């Protein structure tokens, strides 16, 4: 997909937000979209948590989130998979 202008970005963002809101509300939602969003958000949160430079944390978070939206198996995300700084309670 090529974004010819900001409107294209807004359309995609609105679709993602709608699916996430539907998921959170218990309404019918696109499972594939929501799974990808949650995975990307998790990578973003992990990148923010492990970034050693406080001023760079938002950029690290955004890059990880976008990269995970494109390809959650990308090797550049491996350092986040290996990190144990943030873990979900089991």
Folded structure, characterized:
By secondary structure, the protein is an all-alpha fold. It has one domain. 66% of the residues lie in helices and 0% in strands. It has four helices and no strands. α1 packs across α2 and α2 runs antiparallel to α3. The longest helix is centred in the first third of the chain and has 20 residues. It is globular, with a radius of gyration of 14 Å. The C terminus is likely disordered.
Low-confidence stretches: 86-90
Please estimate the helix content: 55-70%
> What radius of gyration results from the CA coordinates?
14 Å
Helical/strand content category: mainly alpha
Number of domains: 1
Global shape: globular
Q: What's the end-to-end separation, in Å? A: 38 Å
Amount of beta strand: under 5%
For the largest beta-sheet, the strand count, sense and barrel status come to: none
Taken in chain order, the helices and strands follow as HHHH
Q: In DSSP terms, counting alpha (H) and pi (I) runs of 4 or more, how many helices?
A: 4
Instruction: Look at the structure and give the mean pLDDT.
Output: 88
Beta strand count: 0
